[in-house]
Amino acid sequence: MVLVLGSINLDLVVRVEALPRPGETRTGESFATHPGGKGANQALAARRAGATVALFGAVGGDAFAGPALALLGEGAVDLTGIAVADAATGVALIHVDARGENTITVVPGANARVSASSVPASVLGPETVVAMQLEIPLAEVAAMAHRAHASGARVILNAAPARAVPADVLSDIDVLVVNEIEAATLAPALNAPASPAGFATHLATTFDVATVVTLGAAGLIAVSSDGVIALPAPRVQVVDTVGAGDALVGALAAALDRLESWPRALREGLAAGSLACMSAGAQPAMPFRGAIRAMAETI
After folding, report:
1. Partners of 32 in the beta sheet?
2. Three-class SS of residue 106?
3. Residue 168: which residues within 8 A CB-CB, separation 6 or more?
4. What is the DSSP letter of 298?
5. Exposed, middle or buried, 138 (CB in 10 Å: 0-12/13-18/19+)?
6. Does residue 240 carry a catalytic annotation?
7. CA 96-98-100 angle, 5° bins
8. Rounded distance, CA 229 to CA 10, Å?
9. How far is CA 230 from the centre of its chain?
10. Angle at which helices 244-257 and 262-276 pack, to 10 degrees?
11. Distances in Å between the alpha carbon of 89 and those of 68, 93, 117, 279?
């Protein structure tokens, strides 16, 4: 089983020809709402990639909660671990330009109330893959990682949005996934090089953490005890990149849950991330297992 402790948002998405510069007002071309939040996105991505998935998080008692959970419910993600907090449901304000690039501002709301203690010990163990991100309090991420690691679960941390992660947290992490910007943000506190290859190598050798750095259209580089793996991204027609990283993490978690080899899990993750770029929005763009497997064969 894949267990996700993470954020749940409603994404408010505006498409524009070019991203606004500081002090600039632009007229948008369209507006839409989509369920999102990195935790929810990764839970749905793992579910569509074939895993049994349980999501633990929090929403508010407001009108945004239902839409934020809609696709998860339709996708048969286990939502019994979702709490209703005395706070607004989290939102993400997203601009997407004509090239598919984006800027995102997240307002945590109920996500700031997520607690590792909401996860019962009965769902943790060697048969569980735990995935987390950094849109919930870091202290709760650290507490959950420690409990999960002690139970024998495999722990994946997607250190996004970019923020420093204390070195002692890494002792409870099996797999770290970051993009280039996130790697550069984490590097100083960990005495690591800021370059993707240097960062991944440092974490793998110093902290024994299998480290994946995603490189956008250039693919990814991963360093673990098995060595260095560099994979080019498939060429796709990009609509937007909003959910690409979450699709990669969710599919990677699902593949590891199926006990796929590390190289195969990386290929499935990269395939899922690439496929997610071909559709608008985050959760609506999460690909299904058949498409992931087919594209992974081409990488």
Report:
1. 13
2. strand
3. none
4. T
5. middle
6. no
7. 55
8. 35
9. 20
10. 150
11. 8, 13, 20, 25
pLDDT digits over 220-233, tens only?
A: 999 999 899 999 99
DSSP alpha helix (H) spans, 238-288:
244-257, 262-276
DSSP 236: -
C-alpha distance from residue 118 to each of 47, 72, 81, 176 (Å): 21, 19, 7, 23
| Between residues 97 and 267, the one the model is more confident about | 267
Q: Is the pTM of this model over 0.90?
A: yes
Cα–chain center distance at 68: 16
The amino acid occupying position 93 is L
* Active-site pick, 172, 174, 240, 246: 246
The answer to whether residues 12 and 33 touch, using CB atoms and an 8 Å cutoff, is: yes
**30-36 vs 53-60, strand pairing mode:** unpaired
| The pLDDT of residue 280 | 79
Q: 253 near 247, Cβ under 8 Å?
A: no
* Structural domains of the chain ordered from first start: 2-296 (3.40.1190.20)
> The sheet that has 90-96: what strands, in order across it?
30-36, 9-15, 90-96, 102-107
Q: What six digits make up the tokens of 254?
A: 């699902």
Instruction: Name 221's bridge partners.
Output: 213, 230
Query: Which tokens hold the place of 244?
Result: 């690409």
Sorted by sequence, the CB contacts under 8 Å of residue 236 that are 6+ apart come out as 274, 275, 277, 278
